[in-house]
Amino acid sequence: MKNVLILATGDIAKEFVHRVSSSRIKDNHYYISFSTEHMPTKRCLAHINCLDIDPTSYMRLKGVMSDREFRVVFIVMDDKMEASYTLQNVRIINPDILVIFVNSWNDELNLDYKNLTIIDSNEILASNLYEKLPNVPLIATNIGLGRGEIMEILVPVGSSFAFRHIGSIAHRKWRVVAIYRDEKQILPNSTTMILPNDRLIVMGNSIVLESLYNKINRRQGIFPEPFGRNLYLILDNDSKKEDILLQMNEAVFLSNQLSQTKLYVRLIDISDFDLIKELRIFENEHVSLSLSYRDKEVFHDIDYDISQFDIGLFLVDNRLFFKKNYKKYLYELTRPIYIFGDTSLYNIRDSLVLLDNRLEMEALSSSVFDFSEALGVSLSLCDYNPEGDFEDNRNVIEHYESLSRLYNFRITIEQKRVNPIRELLKHEKILHIAPFSKKIRDTSLVGFLSMELSHYFLSIKKHPQLLIPVDN
User: Fold this and answer.
1) At 191, phi and psi to the nearest 5?
2) Is the CB of residue 435 less than 8 Å from the CB of residue 401?
3) What is the DSSP string of 373-398?
4) Mean pLDDT across the chain
5) Angle at 428 between CA 426 and CA 434, to 5 degrees
6) Angle CA(284)–CA(272)–CA(303) in degrees, nearest 5?
7) 16 Cβ partners below 8 Å, 6+ apart?
8) How far apart are CA 305 and CA 236, in angstroms?
9) Given CA atoms 92, 97, 100, 106 in this order, what sign does their dihedral have?
10) Do residues 248 and 279 make contact, with C-beta atoms less than 8 angstroms apart?
């Protein structure tokens, strides 16, 4: 049994004493100096002793503190002078005891005592008000280190985390430890799906949680949000003139389809002035051209453009994507990459996703719906498995069906016992959407001998491809 001494007067003390009296913690015995009319009813007093003393009286207080050993002393008093005298008395009687002292006078107190915790009531009130503001995370300040390593996050409608399974989210230095939904607590496992308006209790590194809060609250907008706003086309002198003009037309078409976007074009080592003149015809308030004549410094130029123009989507051809250092560089930018195919984008009728890695499939889903809806094409979810084992992708399909209802966007689900690459080659007028993962970053042209699905589909130039970054 731990003895706790509470020296209290005023409204804050009244609320505190009533909370203590109704506490379910029976291992504490409370000795409370408080006016009798505010004391709890007798049925609650089994673990409470009422003290009829003036705590500013050194002799009266010493008589109480000398009779028994107290673990902690709370000083919750509305008069500043009386509270100060009481604290001095406590410290003279026992210099080492832990004291919790409430400052409710909006004053800075110069109290140089060890084992003293000062609670500023105005600071607590301001903190509670601040946490009620929109877009402010709720942090457990009195649990753990109190530095933001325990946080409550509301999942808004349209969040990229909504309708995702816990197991599909990469957890680095953080975990979802509980979900509150419809006034009920859920202890999640890997198959638990996060829904809009869920309140997540997350624990982890405070810096990571701050970033996580921003990710969860980042609503999916018109593609290429949330990666950026504008499009970026890279053209170089190794491509044929007719291919460059076709890619330019296709990029302009895509920019027009994605509303409120601009197209920025970077020309690399192109010395054909007639070609440059033809490309200049496309320039207007929504299309801008820039030239680079030093290939070695092109990444520096691109970095500058990204910092200036809020780039959210890159457009390159397959050859440039595999050009030395480009694929790795583009991967590090964590932006979607559109790779031109033999079929032009304005002839596309269907976007297609080949089901593979569950984590990656759910991570790119919101962008898949956004892009398909913006282009006005249908969406097919294809589970092609030579062994006919479709159970592994059941949760992914459930996730896409949930988003389909949310977006009011119909999807087609195909499950076939076929070779996925051969089946993919049979399709016409499709855009293939896939995760831009580390496996793709590490793929080389000779890597197509690998058994990885991602190593094969990049070799198919028939279809244009959209690679979307995912959490790896």
Assistant:
1) -95, 0
2) no
3) HHHT-EEEEEEE-TT---GGGHHHHH
4) 84
5) 85
6) 60
7) 6, 8, 74, 76
8) 16
9) positive
10) yes
- Please check the confidence at residue 208 and state whether its pLDDT lies above 90: no
Which residues, listed in sequence order, are joined to residue 32 by a DSSP beta bridge? 6, 50
Least confident range of 136-140, 218-222, 286-290, 344-348: 218-222
Query: Of 4-13, 107-116, 447-456, which gets the smallest average pLDDT?
Result: 447-456
Measured between alpha carbons, how far is residue 410 from residues 110, 294, 386 in Å? 66, 47, 26
For 372-389, letters b (16+ CB in 10 Å) and e give: bbbbebbbbbbbbbeeee
Torsion over CA: 316, 343, 467, 310 (sign): positive
- This prediction has a pTM of 0.63
Q: Please write the tens of the pLDDT for every residue from 293-329.
A: 776 778 999 999 998 998 999 999 988 998 878 889 9
Taking alpha carbons only, the member of 198, 221, 95, 211 closest to residue 152 is: 198
Whose CA is closest to 380, among 405, 360, 355, 359? 355
At CA 205, angle to CA 201 and CA 209, rounded to 5? 50
CA distance 4 to 44: 16
Interatomic CA distance for residues 403 and 369, integer angstroms: 8
